[in-house]
Structures are given as C-alpha cells and as structure tokens.
Design a protein that fits this description.
Low-confidence stretches: none
CATH superfamily of one domain: Immunoglobulins
Keywords: Immunoglobulin domain
Pfam family, one: Ig_3
CATH architecture of one domain: Sandwich
Largest sheet: 5 strands, mixed
Protein name: Ig-like domain-containing protein
Organism: Micrurus corallinus
Strand order of the largest sheet: 3-1-10-6-7
Distance between the termini: 22 Å
Order of helices and strands: EEEEEEEEEE
Shape: elongated
CATH class of one domain: Mainly Beta
Structural class: mainly beta
GO molecular function: cell-cell adhesion mediator activity
CATH topology of one domain: Immunoglobulin-like
Helix content: under 10%
Length: 102
C-alpha cells in the first residue's frame, strides 16, 4: 500500500500584532506500508494562534477517531495522521492514496 503526503496552508483570518501566520515545520513524506501494519503521516505546523491541521484524501476530509471512535485512523495532538493498521480490501475503502495536510 502506498501513502503519499502533501501539504497545503490556509490562513483566512486577520492577524493581530503578536500573531504570525501558520507555517508547516514538518512535512509528510511518502510511505510504503504492508497491509495490516501501522503507519504515521507526519505534519506539524506553527503559528499564532496555534493552527489546526486537517487531512484530506481525494478531496474528502479523512475520518478519524474524533469523528468515529471505531476508526482505525487517529489525528495525533501534533497534527500527524496515525493509522492503527493499513486497510486494503473489498470490505472497506483502502487507505492507499494521496493525503493532503491542511
């Protein structure tokens, strides 16, 4: 299974004097992972106020354990996307693809 990470920044709000715009400080990298194995796509950002990181795959927001406690994907406090196990099969949507960190 091939996971590919991209990054994208968005800063739609006005900044206060002591604020600074968001900036990605750790970029995701490509991964090749076996089915059933864990994996992490890293993404860290800095900014003030502290930026919120979201992940997208194929233009759709990635569902994590915050959306569904049964999900095998977790959004870590750092903004990284952790897969408890890589899914690739007929019964569920495969995890392989291009992931975008926003």
């Amino acid at each position: 299974v091939y996971l590919f990470g991209l990054i994208c920044l968005s800063s739609g709000s006005r900044l206060r004097q002591d604020d600074f715009p968001p900036r990605i400080i750790e970029h995701p990298s490509d991964l090749i992972v076996s089915k059933g194995e864990p994996a992490t796509l890293n993404c860290k950002a800095e900014g003030k106020p502290v930026p919120t990181i979201e992940w997208y795959k194929g233009g759709e927001r990635v569902e994590t354990d915050k959306d569904d406690p049964r999900s095998h994907r977790m959004l870590l406090p750092t903004g990284s996307l952790f897969f408890l196990r890589i899914v690739h099969g007929r019964k569920s949507r495969p995890d392989e693809g291009v992931y975008v960190c926003v």
